[in-house]
TrEMBL record:
Taxonomic lineage: Bacteria, Pseudomonadati, Pseudomonadota, Gammaproteobacteria, Oceanospirillales
Alphabetized PANTHER family for the sequence: SPERMIDINE/PUTRESCINE IMPORT ATP-BINDING PROTEIN POTA, THIAMINE IMPORT ATP-BINDING PROTEIN THIQ
InterPro entries registered for this protein in UniProt: AAA+_ATPase, ABC_SmlMolc_Importer, ABC_transporter-like_ATP-bd, ABC_transporter-like_CS, Mo/tungstate-bd_C_term_dom, P-loop_NTPase, Transp-assoc_OB_typ2
Name of the protein in question: Polyamine-transporting ATPase
Domain of life, per lineage: Bacteria
Keyword terms, alphabetized: ATP-binding, Cell inner membrane, Cell membrane, Membrane, Nucleotide-binding, Translocase, Transport
Statement: the UniProt record of this protein carries the keyword Cell membrane: yes
Residue ranges crossing the lipid bilayer per the database entry: none
SUPFAM superfamilies listed in its UniProt record: MOP-like, P-loop containing nucleoside triphosphate hydrolases
PROSITE patterns for this protein: ABC_TRANSPORTER_1, ABC_TRANSPORTER_2
The keyword Hydrolase appears for this protein: no
Annotated ranges, domain ABC transporter: 53-283
Length: 393
């Protein structure tokens, strides 16, 4: 038997009460880390890791409303995959389907090649950490973390040892006797994570679990999660609507939009090669120019002709995307001209907003130390043609 316990907002899933330890992820992940270190410039998981979770045609409708359209996704052993997207894009629904908390309308879900679709939540080898950590207030940190093992009737000595181990892992070894209300948000988050990890679930799901923390603490916890991920080799699916968080944390990002997968890829892949205007806009800052290609290797826009990054047939409507860091100010190539209307200082760089036309403001960057352009200056804008992306969706 196994069990799921918690409140409506917080559920923790406890794997079956078998005597078999549920350890599959750490060994597999460790091998992968070695491979990663040996070949630093090669993206992780690309070819080495087997599929941990295979999602096939999975969808969810609530009455007439399609919260999630049928989608396919392979999550690899030992990877940290982020589900990223705006509010309502279906991230939580997908996470709930993976956890077994919600029944799919169509499709199936295989974990380690075994069909899980009909398996109840409490029989899946999955740990869930939700946004509100829901620690038991009347139990100490150690007791909170030990709780799942106690409920399973694990021997006391073994439980104590394991509690010590996971608390050390999350940097909370010295606070085992504290009560939750005497902990900061970040510390509570660590305890929730420890309570999930005490089972060694081979798949950990985290839903917006850092969103209650302030920025500094959030960044520290992101690094902690990366470290834990490296050390344990667990497969983690992390939900966030924060693109910076996704870029900082993920091996791969699954970008979602309107209940569909928009693009899946490594952070730099999505940043450098967005496949849609939505992806270009959602991750990082983009300058977008709508127009139509011509046979002369340029795109005609209402602001003038802009060079195409590659050879593209004429007559195609689309959008040219140029990242701010690729915009050269007063360089040799000048395709547009405008007036600096805003300067936003951000330490290592200054962001410049340049009004090119009443309805077009271009964002550019100037590195610290460069001679600053004052507000009101006229400036010519250009970029290396190959640094732009031409998108048709
Ligand atoms: N039980 C439900 N009944 C009806 N509609 C639902 C239900 N649960 C979710 N939805 C709808 O499905 C869509 C996707 O919701 P979901 O919570 O998965 O989005 P999300 O990307 O996680 O958003 P957020 O970042 O705001 O949590 C939303 O439009 C939501 O209103």
């Amino acid at each position: 038997m196994s069990s799921a316990r918690g409140t409506a907002n917080h559920v923790e899933l406890y794997p079956g009460d078998t005597n078999e330890p549920v350890v599959t992820a750490s060994l597999a992940g460790a091998g992968q880390d070695v491979a990663r270190e040996a070949k630093l410039d090669v993206p992780p998981q690309e070819s080495l890791a087997p599929t941990k979770l295979k999602i096939e045609g999975l969808s969810k409708a609530y009455g007439d409303f399609q919260a999630l359209h049928p989608l396919d996704l392979d999550i690899r052993e030992g990877e940290l995959l982020t589900l990223l997207g705006p509010s309502g894009s279906g991230k939580t629904t997908l996470l709930q389907l993976i956890a077994g908390l919600v029944k799919p309308s169509t499709g199936k879900l295989l974990m380690d090649d075994i069909d899980q679709t009909a398996l109840p939540a409490n029989q899946r080898d999955v740990g869930v950490v939700f946004q509100n950590y829901a620690l038991f207030p009347h139990l100490t940190v150690s007791e909170n973390v030990a709780f799942p093992l106690r409920m399973r009737g694990e021997p006391r000595a073994q439980t104590l040892e394991r509690v010590k181990e996971v608390l050390e892992m999350v940097g909370m070894g010295h606070l085992g006797d504290r009560f939750p209300d005497a902990l900061s948000g970040g510390q509570q988050q660590r305890v929730a994570l420890a309570r999930c990890m005490i089972y060694r679930p081979s798949l950990i799901l985290m839903d917006e679990s850092l969103s209650a923390l302030d920025r500094k603490l959030r960044e520290t916890m992101q690094m902690e999660i990366r470290r834990l991920h490296r050390e344990t080799g667990a497969t983690i699916v992390f939900v966030t609507h924060d693109q910076e968080e996704a870029l900082a944390l993920s091996d791969r990002i699954c970008l979602m939009n309107g209940g569909r997968i928009e693009q899946v890829g490594r952070p730099e892949e999505i940043y450098e090669h967005p496949e849609s205007v939505f992806a270009a806009n959602f991750i990082g800052v983009s300058n977008l120019f709508a127009g139509k290609t011509t046979d002369r290797g340029v795109m005609e826009t209402v602001f003038g002709s802009l060079p195409l990054p590659e050879s593209i047939a004429g007559g195609i409507e689309g959008t040219l995307v140029v990242r701010p860091e690729h915009i050269a100010l007063n360089g040799d190539d000048r395709y547009l001209e405008g007036e600096v209307v805003e300067r936003v200082y951000a330490g290592a760089e200054t962001r410049l907003l340049i009004q090119v036309a009443p309805e077009l403001v271009v964002t550019a960057r100037q590195a610290a130390g460069a001679s600053m352009l004052e507000i009101g200056s006229r400036v010519g804008l250009g970029w290396a043609a190959e640094n732009a992306r031409f998108l048709t969706r």
